[in-house]
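User: For my dataset I need records formatted as: sequence, then structure tokens, nothing else. Please produce one.
Assistant:
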Amino acid sequence: MQNPVQTAFAAVILASFACGSQAMASTTYADTRVAAEAGTVSPISRWQIQDSAKAQQGGAAISASGFATTEWFPVTGRATVMAGLLENQVFKGDVFHSDNLRAVQVPDASGNLFVTPWWYRAGFSLAKAGSGRHTLFRTHGIIASADLWVNGKQVADHTNLAGAYPVRDIDVTRWVRAGSNALALKVYPGDPRMSLSIGWVDWNPTPPDNNMGPWRGVDIIQTGPVALSAPLVLPTLSADLKQATLSVKVTATNLDSVAHDATLTGTVADKPVKQTVHLAPGEVKVVSFAAGSTPAATLDNPKVWWPIGMGDHPLYDMAVSATVDGVASDRAATRFGVRRVESTLTHQGYRQFTINGQPLLIRGGGWAPDMFLRDDPARMDAEFSYVVNLGINTIRSEGKLENQRFYDLADQHGILILAGWECCDKWEAAAKTGGEPWNDADMRVAQASMASEARLLRNHPSVIGFFIGSDHAPPPALAKMYTDTLRAEDWSLPVISAAVDEKTAEAGPSGMKMAGPYDWIPPSYWYADKLGGAFGFDSEVSAGATIPRLEDVQRMLSVQEQEALWKYPEARQYHASADWSTFAVLTPFDTALARRYGAPTGLADYVAKAQLDNYDNVRAQFEAFNARMGADNPATGVIYWMLNNAWPSLHWHLYDYYMNPAGAYYGAKKANEPVHIQYSYDSRSVVVVNHTLADQHALTATVRVRNLDGSVRFQKQVQGIDLPGNRTQAVLDLPAVTDLSTVYFVELDLAAADGKAISRNVYWLSTRADTLDWAKSNWYLTPLTQYGDFTALATLPRATREVRVSTTREGSDDVTTVTLSVPSTSPAAAVQEHLSIRRGPKGELALPVTWSDNDVTLWPGESIVLTARYPAGGAVGTVVEVEGWNAPVAQFTAGVTQGTKH
């Protein structure tokens, strides 16, 4: 859809870019200061950047001390070019709104902003240089490649500084001096179709700069003559979990032109280790602290690391330092966890992961960083809090592999990580029929990428495997290179050939399936025994469109796009797919929404109906896999596609870019409760699920079938349920119930032996089934010959609610407790009551927020207590906003008991 402001927006962008250097001229810029001690790592915290079409002086001049950068843009240490320009507010307006991002790609007087190289310049100050001191630059990946200059001298070029992932150490000792220094990177444009960088396919629009820049940062390292790197601890845990042996290694490099004896000392899990090593000039040696077959350390009754929901996530420390002639030279440290990861294939050929001897159902989502690769530690912390709150146990990273902090957070929270290379583009060009083969330079970059990622990931207990292919398994030469490189780096975890059902000679069958869907299908689909149904390991799958809440829809779409969203199912939406792909329209979703819930009467009605659908469908996806954990053809894993988005999107997320949880989020959260009760669409059975390792005893399940008017048509209580840990079992098969309204409810409650509520789950069902046309299935959806009928939901009378609110401060968070009640006098149930926290004079949403539960349904006489945790803010003006399917928006302040009556 053409945005009427696009032309004006483009003009503003060009004007802003032209005058941006003047706006930045007065910005204070400080050198990175590097401490005197050997063994220090100092990340470059700030760069200044400029287009080489404007800064034409050349690397020798630009990297010289005193070079004038008054017309350059100061940016953070991990900024891509586009991220840096956004930091400097070069592009006026919100590039995430409507299709404004298109205007960024218009050319200026010298051509497109991103087809020429860009300069990155940084000053740094060394407290000490010379006299046995070495200075290294460590690059953590550059998109697409770069030349490096230091103090007027070129020290590396883009043939050996290429690729998004290789970590490179460059000894620049002879070109630096004590005091002020400068370096410059000439970063070359990237194209994910031509280089091993980062591409986005149909996830979101392609960033205009193709993410060019040192996206994972550059470090300045000070060492003595012997440098240490790549510390490694490989635990071997006994079957009874009572003992762990630790293999401990570190890489020592002699940076000098003379031989050295280095003494390496340190601790691993508080146990001492020591080794003396002789290094020839320039020699690199992997030093093992084991003595023959004797491990470096043995731990009796180790603190075992478990995934979330199965136990604690304790971590141990390893640290080692090197001295040469009694003088400190360098140091290295890492953290690790003690756990055992195994992977086998079921009889049907699907992958089953086992952690510490316990098979587990992988329940996860696909990770997306910010599309401009902007580094935001606070946001990453918040995203992990959402993952924990959702109850899922795994994140899959298909490319866009993150930095150390991401994996540290996964370790701390017990979130499993399945990492791997991305699909499509250059990464899989050689695997496609007719695809472009790789040359020797590509192979070198890929090998360096694999080695670097192995060293980054191998100590993290959260990491349980690596996909060497995604939509295609790599061809034989690449597969052998990947697996040989992993073995050389002491990789001890499963190597997975691809995310599809393919195999390689080295890694064997993948044990995965990627059979869709990616677009709308009904909840009953997930219980099928074909395609993307709940059996085996689904590496990426979902029902496609995921509509944010109304406030976010209005924030991301123009007025015209908002109208098209609910009126015109065939209209292309830029926030569905920027390209003319299958997913550029929401036709399957919109058609189903109108057929099942009734044609939308406006945007708000469309969004409200979408929340019902998203909740129902996402819950069913995870619950179907729960139900089949122990089946004859067991479900072993499901990765919801996706966990999050790189930008505001109408597709594929459990929480949206604005981090405002909506129906999909709470459907997933409900399904992934540690101990859970659920309904099966195929067998009409009621199932209880225990994702913890603790046995549950004397549980009580209560089942009610209600008509739309709330009348109970069936009720039964099942007592004395014993539910072993890590198990699923059926407790009741619902009989046929007569005299049901066209839409009816199934209400499930699970209580502990002491009567305390454990799980509550409410379904709205139709007497008319969704009927799938399996014969016409394709790779992304299965069409229907009949849709369920939920239109009667629109006839529900307005419900009455009562709300009591209190808020307390806990550290840096506010915690709000809400008692939500539906009085017995209410004319109807309150369906899908959604709670939000607003505060401040403008009533802005308090985000991020984690609720104990949300989107709840209550009948007259029922009540529930909900809690919300969110960053502390001003106490004045904080309110709880409640909005339901059949109850209007109302706001309640702390300590006030209020009700709404209609």
